[in-house]
Automatic annotation (TrEMBL):
Family matches, as Pfam families: Pyr_redox_2, Pyr_redox_dim
Protein name as it appears in the record: Soluble pyridine nucleotide transhydrogenase
Membrane-crossing residue ranges in chain numbering: none
Origin species: Aquimarina hainanensis
Family per similarity comment: Belongs to the class-I pyridine nucleotide-disulfide oxidoreductase family.
EC number: 1.6.1.1
Keyword Membrane among UniProt keywords: no
Keywords on record: Cytoplasm, FAD, Flavoprotein, NAD, NADP, Oxidoreductase
Highest taxon in the source lineage: Bacteria
UniProt xrefs under NCBIfam families: PRK05249.1
Location of this chain's protein in the cell: Cytoplasm
Length: 476
């Protein structure tokens, strides 16, 4: 029987980084992947494909350039689904090769097949042939899959989840997205950018409830400008799929209204991908939505078995999953280089426009009894924003303590928000004040000047000299 210091199950962001780090420190590592393609949801069905489609939609639609330079882009022919999927396929296929090469370069032994526990140290691999291997430590990084409510008749043709939507063969004439979380909002804005009539059905009265409410409302405003209809406080109670593929789906809403659309996307939840592992054979405790329960070191109740990434639930981000994998390896092999996950990390929502945040929302600051103030700056008011054409009336919002002027929250909606947030992360981690930001020199013209002008605005607000209000229009 083959024996390894570490067996990693899954080649997604968490699994790959953990396997490579353990091998780098001289340990023997085996990685088991049940799919033919590597990278898990991060590469194959989630993070990178959807973000690539977002950039493709921006390019093909030209929505950020229309009228800005005096002419509009013309592709010279009708855009087809092949154009839409072209870059996504290149990115996915290239990353698959990069991951395989990275594992090979570090000497990780790769097994293709489905993993299942025999006991806490032995894993069976079922593929073209069956094999059992031994691991001193085992890391579960099997990711997640789209949750399928029993009442939804998924057919992967017109009724989709967030995996099958990536394989559509033609553009829908219209689409309904159920769920206003990150996945639902991202896909809704992508389809709307391509000129597809889009509906969002949401059982709450707001979208992305973890956002600062001002940012959430601003995103709703931009969605409506893109012809997205959001049906708040509603749900779908019945689905009728006609035999004729040219006829619309009939979706009966809780309100009694019947929504007729060409396609439907369910985007309201995912579950841990652990069904095939037979965790009970190893005595592993599991939680809600098929997740594995772990401690702060990502160790399960079985000391030699760890779990990371989507399979342990929140926050289920590719960025945090990679670090979780590395941290788990630190504790297994006492590498003493990365002990814990950063307590502050950014969130990026790749909608059109993008949204990104770090630190406290205004609502959380109120809840915590903090004496705070805010400062705003707008893309349209700074030189780089003028050059770009004030895309989506984007803005940056700083939240800071009134007495110390220390920044405690950064919230951005607009083009490149997910890139701009990282300076905000440094500000909050280092407990910088408005004065620190004002005293920083940025390249000119760049969008980073949003931070400086928001700081000046915040100082003006403290002095009772309100410079502008959120959403206030200014045309130079």
């Amino acid at each position: 029987m083959k024996s390894y210091d570490l067996i990693v199950i899954g080649s997604g962001p968490a699994g790959e980084k953990a396997a490579v780090k353990a091998a780098y420190f001289g340990n023997t590592v085996a990685l088991i992947e049940k799919e033919q393609a590597f990278g898990g949801a991060g590469v194959q069905t989630g993070t990178l494909p959807s973000k690539t489609l977002k950039e493709t939609a921006l390019y093909l639609s030209g929505i950020y350039q229309k009228g800005v330079f005096g002419i509009d882009k013309d592709l010279g022919r009708e855009t087809g689904i092949q154009d839409f999927m072209y870059r996504k396929n290149i990115v996915v296929n290239t990353m698959d090769k990069i991951i395989k090469y990275n594992l090979e370069k570090h000497g990780v032994t790769v097994f293709q097949g489905t993993a299942s526990f025999i006991d806490k140290n032995h894993v069976k691999i079922s593929g073209e042939t069956s094999e059992t291997i031994y691991g001193k430590y085992i890391l579960i990084a099997t990711g997640s899959y789209p949750y399928h409510p029993k009442n939804i008749p998924f057919d992967n043709e017109r009724i989709h989840d967030s995996d099958s939507i990536l394989n559509i063969k033609k553009f829908p004439k219209s689409i309904c997205v159920l769920g206003a979380g990150v996945i639902g909002c991202e896909y809704a804005t992508i389809f709307a950018a391509m000129g597809i009539k889009t509906y969002i059905v949401n059982n709450k009265d707001e979208i992305l409830t973890f956002l600062d409410k001002e940012i959430s409302k601003a995103l709703v405003t931009q969605m409506k400008k893109r012809n997205i209809s959001i049906l708040f406080n509603n749900s779908i109670v019945d689905y009728h799929i006609p035999d004729d593929p040219d006829q619309n789906l009939n979706l009966t809403l809780e309100s009694g209204e019947i929504l007729q659309v060409d396609s439907f996307l369910f985007a309201a939840g995912r579950s841990g991908n652990i069904k095939l592992l037979q965790c009970e054979n190893a005595g592993i405790k599991t939680g809600d939505r098929e997740t594995i329960i772990v401690n702060e070191m990502f160790q399960s109740n079985i000391p030699n078995i760890y779990a990371v990434g989507d399979t342990i639930g929140f926050p289920a981000l590719a960025s945090t999953s990679m670090e979780q994998g590395r941290i788990a390896v630190t504790h297994m092999f006492k590498t003493a280089d990365l002990e814990s996950l950063a307590d502050i990390f950014p969130y990026g929502i790749y909608t059109i426009p993008e949204v990104s945040l770090i630190g406290l929302t205004e609502e959380k600051a109120k809840e915590n009894g903090i004496d705070y103030n805010v400062g705003y700056s707008y893309y349209r008011d700074i030189s780089r924003g003028m050059i770009m054409g004030y895309p989506d009336n984007g803005f940056l919002k700083l939240i800071f303590e009134s007495k110390t002027k220390i920044v405690i929250g950064v919230h951005i909606i607009g083009h490149h928000a997910t890139e701009l947030i990282h300076y905000g992360m440094a500000i909050i981690r280092e407990k910088h004040t408005l004065s620190h930001i004002i005293g920083t020199v940025f390249n000119y013209p760049t969008l980073h000047n949003l931070y400086k002008y928001a700081s000046y605005d915040g100082l003006g607000n403290l002095a009772g000299k309100k410079i502008k209000k959120a959403g206030e229009q200014f045309i130079p």
